[in-house]
Amino acid sequence: NLAEYLAVRRALEELINNELTDEEIIVNSDSEMLVLQLKGEKKVDKGGGYVPVYNEVKEMLKKFSNVTFKWIPRGENTEANLLASKAV
Asked: For residues 25 and 12, what is the distance between their CA atoms, to the nearest angstrom?
């Protein structure tokens, strides 16, 4: 969970640094939990190690005018899985 939130934080940092906060942003993730939490549809486990980064992401999202989170099941996420394998 922490890695997923770190990835979203990094992406948002890049978008902010490149002054793209008014663009339509779609975040695709195979982490259903992350997507539901950031959409406000699932509670955040206050004892989770990812909570500080979750809080940072929520603050960063306030700078954006149009962000959508979309869950992509792992079985349908072959392109991302290939890129992740190459990175490792």
From this structure: 10
